[in-house]
Specification:
heterodimer, A: alpha+beta, four-stranded antiparallel β-sheet, 4 helices, globular, B: alpha+beta, six-stranded mixed β-sheet, elongated
Chain lengths: 246, 260
C-alpha cells in the first residue's frame, strides 16, 4: 500500500483535526422482520444491524436460568473491502469480535429480566474502512433500543490511536494500518466505565490518558446522533416505509 | 411444526379460494419494486432492490482468477446468496441452506443461459482470467426473494465497471468502461395455491403454496431458464398461461431495472 503523510501542520491526511470524527449517519428501524434494526454510515463504513429477542434460547442447554443469553454475530461481507473478493463465513477475527461486542451488551442489557431467553444481535459489515467494531457497537446500541430491550445504558464506541506521534480520534483504515497504534474503546455512559478495550501498537501512559480524554469527548457527539436516530422514529410515530437507505 | 404457519396457511388458502388476495392486489400484479444502483463504493457494481417488504442487496466484484482446465480461454462467474439471519426469524446463521443455494443457482443460471456476458472477453493471459463474483445479500424477507434477487443482480451488472488491466494485472481503483451485457434478463415467480396462480407471492403465500415456478425471460420474449419447486404440480395449460403473463410483465420490470 502507498505510504501517505498521516499528520502535517496540525491536520490529518483527510483534513480532519485530531478531535474530529468522520461523518456519521445513523438510521433506526430499517428492517421489517427483525425486532430492532439500525443502519449506520461512518465515513466509508456501511453497517447494518438486526436484533431478535428476547426469544426462546435454542439449543436449550445454552440457556441461563438467571438471565438472557446474548448471542452476537459480527460478519464481514465478502465485498466489504477494496481488495480481493473475500470468503464468506466466520473467520478467527470475526469470532473474536463477535465475542467482545456481545460482552459489551451483556453488561448493559437487563438480562435478569429474561431468564432462559436469548437476545440475538446480527452485525453485518457491508463496507469496511477502519473502526468497524466500534461502529458496530454504536449501531447495535440503537438497534437494541429499537427492539425495546431494556438497557441500563446506551453504548457508543470509537477508536483512538497514535499517528505520527500524535493521539487522534476515529482512525480510518489508512491511519489504522500505517499509524503507530490503534485502541478501540467503549464507555458506559453513566459512570464512564470502560466496557471494551482493545489496543495494539505503541502507547505510553500519558498517551492512554489523552486517548481516554479525547474518546470521552467524541462519544458525547456519537451519543447525540444515536438518540436523534431513535427520536426520528419514535417521537413522531407515523406510517412510514421501512427500508435500508444505502 | 410451527402452529402459526399452519394457521396462516389455512387463512391464506381460504382467502385465495374466495377470489381475493392479501395486500389488495390481483393475481398478476407485482408489489412495489424500488431499485437503486451504485450503492457501494468498494465493489465494481451494486444495487439494492425492495420488493414489497423484501430487501435484497447485490454486489458485483471483479478480481483475478485461474480459468477452469477445460475452459482456458474463458473468464469465471460465481454467484452466491446469503440469507442473513437478520432478514427473518426463519434464517439461522451457519453454512448456506438449501434455500440459499437454490436462490443463487437460479440467478446464476439466468445470467449464464442468456449468455449476456461474453466470457471470452474476460481472458487476460495464459492461465489468467477475470472472475466476476455476484453476491446476493438478503436483508429482509417477505417472500419472492428470487425475483428481487434476479432484479438486483441484473441492476448491479448493468452498472458494473470494468477494471483497467496493465501488464496482466488489475490496476487498483482505475476503470475502463462498463461491463458489456448483450441482454437483459427478468425473473418472474408464480406460486400455486389450490388451483390459483399468483405472481410475486408474499411470505404468507409462500407458506401456503404447494408449488412454485420461476421463469427467466430474455428481451425477445424467449425463456432462458425455468425452475419448478414444490411437491405440487402444474398442468401444461397453467404453464402456458404463466409464460404469457411473464412475457407481459417482463417489459415493465426491464424498464424499471434499466432506468434505475
Amino acid at each position: 500500500m502507498e505510504k501517505v503523510e498521516l499528520f502535517k501542520n496540525g491536520k490529518r491526511h483527510d483534513g480532519r483535526n485530531i478531535e474530529d470524527l468522520r461523518k456519521v449517519k445513523i438510521k433506526a428501524h430499517v428492517l421489517n422482520d427483525a425486532d430492532g434494526s439500525a443502519y449506520l454510515e461512518w465515513g466509508n463504513n456501511k453497517i447494518i444491524v438486526g436484533v431478535y429477542g428476547p426469544k426462546e434460547c435454542i439449543p436449550r442447554h445454552l440457556s441461563n436460568p438467571y438471565g438472557a443469553r446474548i448471542k452476537c454475530i459480527y460478519n464481514m461481507s465478502p465485498f466489504s473491502s477494496p481488495g480481493e473478493h473475500g470468503r464468506s463465513g466466520p473467520s478467527r477475527r470475526s469470532k473474536e469480535l463477535s465475542m467482545v461486542i456481545g460482552q459489551v451488551f451483556e453488561n448493559v442489557i437487563k438480562t435478569e429480566n429474561f431468564p432462559k431467553a436469548a437476545i440475538e444481535i446480527f452485525v453485518d459489515i457491508l463496507q469496511g474502512d477502519g473502526g468497524t467494531r466500534c461502529a458496530a457497537i454504536t449501531a447495535a446500541s440503537v438497534a437494541l433500543a429499537d427492539a425495546g430491550i431494556p438497557m441500563k445504558d446506551m453504548v457508543s464506541a470509537l477508536a483512538v490511536g497514535k499517528v505520527s506521534g500524535t493521539v487522534v480520534v476515529d482512525l480510518d483504515y489508512v491511519e489504522d494500518s500505517q499509524g503507530q497504534s490503534d485502541c478501540a474503546i467503549a464507555f458506559s455512559r453513566r459512570n464512564k466505565d470502560v466496557l471494551l478495550l482493545q489496543m495494539e501498537g505503541d502507547m505510553s501512559k500519558e498517551d492512554m490518558k489523552k486517548a481516554f480524554e479525547l474518546a470521552l469527548l467524541a462519544e458525547e457527539e456519537l451519543h447525540k446522533l444515536q438518540v436523534d436516530a431513535l427520536k426520528e422514529v419514535y417521537l413522531n410515530v407515523k406510517e412510514r416505509e421501512i427500508f435500508v437507505d444505502i | 411444526m410451527e402452529i402459526l404457519d399452519e394457521l396462516k396457511k389455512d387463512s391464506i388458502k381460504s382467502l385465495i379460494s374466495s377470489g381475493k388476495r392479501a395486500g389488495d392486489r390481483d393475481n398478476v400484479t407485482y408489489r412495489d419494486m424500488v431499485i437503486k444502483k451504485n450503492v457501494l463504493g468498494y465493489s465494481e457494481g451494486s444495487a439494492v432492490v425492495r420488493l414489497g417488504k423484501s430487501q435484497v442487496l447485490c454486489a458485483v466484484k471483479i478480481g483475478m482468477g485461474t480459468p477452469f482446465p477445460d475452459r482456458q480461454d474463458e473468464g469465471m462467474l460465481a454467484t452466491s446468496a446469503e440469507l442473513m439471519p437478520m432478514a427473518s426469524y426463519l434464517f439461522e446463521p451457519g453454512p448456506p441452506s438449501t434455500e440459499a443455494v437454490e436462490l443463487a443457482r437460479i440467478v446464476d443460471r439466468g445470467i449464464r443461459a442468456a449468455e449476456m456476458i461474453d466470457m471470452k472477453k474476460l481472458y487476460i493471459d495464459e492461465g489468467k482470467v477475470l472472475a466476476i463474483y455476484i453476491d446476493l445479500y438478503v436483508m429482509d424477507h417477505d417472500g419472492n426473494l428470487i425475483d428481487a434477487a434476479g432484479a438486483a443482480a441484473m441492476a448491479a451488472l448493468q452498472c458494473t465497471k470494468m477494471p483497467k488491466i496493465k501488464n496482466g494485472e488489475i490496476v487498483k481503483g482505475e476503470y475502463k468502461g462498463q461491463l458489456e451485457l448483450s441482454k437483459t434478463v427478468t425473473t418472474h415467480t408464480f406460486a400455486k395455491i389450490g388451483d390459483t396462480l399468483l405472481l410475486d407471492p408474499c411470505l404468507d403465500e409462500e407458506k401456503g403454496m404447494e408449488a412454485r415456478v420461476t421463469l427467466e425471460i430474455m428481451d425477445n420474449d424467449s425463456i432462458c431458464a425455468i425452475q419448478k419447486w414444490g411437491t405440487g404440480s402444474f398442468t401444461q395449460e397453467e404453464l402456458e398461461k404463466v409464460m404469457d403473463i411473464a412475457f407481459k410483465k417482463s417489459k415493465d420490470i426491464k424498464k424499471r431495472i434499466t432506468k434505475a
